[in-house]
User: What shape does this take?
Amino acid sequence: MISRRITSQITRIPLAWSNVYALTDPLTFETTLIDTGLQKDLPRLLEGLAEIGVSPQKVRRVLLTHGHCDHAGNAAYFAAKGAEIVAHSRELPYLLKPRRTYAPTGLRRFSRLLSTLLFFAGEKLYPVERMERVTPCENGDVIFTPLGDLEAIHSPGHTPGHLAFLHREKDILFSGDAILNIIPVKLTASPSLPLRVFTEDWSEAKLSAQSLVALRPEQMLSGHGSPLTENTTKILQKWARTLRM
Ligand SMILES: [Zn+2]
Assistant: This one.
């Protein structure tokens, strides 16, 4: 089995680098996806969805936390099957035609050069097919999903238009890459920020992480790493104190 059920309506599908979350109506199997993995992850993603009875046509909406290749790689595939793709308005230049490549401006000169080279190589190896239409979303917008309403939370820093999604009633935070639950490179489970070289604005990323922690979620489901489902608020608050601003 590829898919990992978290509840009857939430399934995590771990892919090569990142997680996809499927929010599924248990009666109709209609599904909202949060993120879509790398383009090369498509067979594994479809297999994971088939395990829970979801065909590609049942994916009616895709919420993108951001446009990096390991999150938006298959958005165009689901758009072609009729899904609505939703992303923050500031992320649209990286998703629509003509394309713009990420090139973080908030880094020092050498890191910026390295980062631009890495993004350029990433675009070649792991392309993100640009789309004709993406529904723009703003901070505070409420999006209906099979799990209930999710609130979009603009959490910039990692990318300019990064979004987290909060289920207020259930206190579940889908944190994307604003807070991971794995330390990059070391690969140990812990709240963490993504690598700086892939992050647009480091101080903004820290501020966004702090404001997500202040929401005191009971569960955090992140773009990378396993779910954080116990003592979540305490663990996050302890970690947030170590972030030097
Ligand atoms: Zn990312």
In short: Residues 66, 68, 158, 177, 194, 198 surround zinc ion (CB under 6 Å). The chain is about 25% helix and 20% strand. The first helix runs from residue 42 to 51.
